[in-house]
Amino acid sequence: MVRIALYYILKIISKIFCLLPEKISYAIGDAIGAITWYLVPAKRKKMAVNNVILSLNIDKPSAVRIAKKSWTKFGPMIVEVLRFPIMRYNMNKYVTLIGAENLDEALKLGRGGIIAAAHSDNWELLGGALAQNGYKLVGVAQEQSNHGADRFMNEYRALIGMYVMYKYDVRNMFKMIAKGWLIGLIMDQDAAEDGIVMPFLGRDASCAHGAATIARHNNAPIIPIFIVKGPKRTHKVIIHKPIFVEKTANKHADIRKTTMIITKQIEDHIREYPEEWFWLHDRWKSVEHHQAIKSYTEGDKQNAK
Asked: Which sequence ranges are marked TM in the entry (predicted)?
């Protein structure tokens, strides 16, 4: 009952934020981000700061500033999601696409495509900006344990033009790509035992290989796309040149090689915009805790013989 009620509570809050002036809405979002930073457990903050230091090789004060900003951005991000019902009518006021010709070039092949994105800035807005600019996009979501929150988020993703699909629905992903759609995948989280172990920001991490696997199967392009903050509450969606899987007889090696290229693009983005990335996610946990398996890498060596 409580889970169902949350959906209606979020809808009411969304209605309020849509009625409030934009400046007041963002001011509330800034306050939420600043206040909730002090509620983050000290252990989680320490982990984030250490990860920044190890990844970027910077001093502690700078690392604390980056970790804090990567959290406080969630206040305005939440506000923007709550304001989707009105933002959708004038999306280009808030988001500028940079490098759209790269995406158009990839789609001209007629094979659909896979977007390789990251938890940078407001990643929910990234999908909406593409959809509102006429791109047919499937937003691949992680099903939430709270049904009310899950229903709300998927409804708002659909509201701004995305077709929503859960990440376990792989068969339908293949079908949608075959129809020429874009599949949006977030590629920067710890993939645990399902991933491929490779260097990420200087340390071994378990990296998701879904984009490379689907692209190899469908001969589809992979387009790295990230969103970053722009001036005066705006955002920029940066669209990179497409990546293609070099298909050989060694499937595992192909997937690993392509995943390394994607991972390098994500690394480069994070180094350029460190405050935009979500450092409070324990990105290296499965390798550090010996939960990720390295058999995939070993299999590459055996198959290459």
From this structure: none
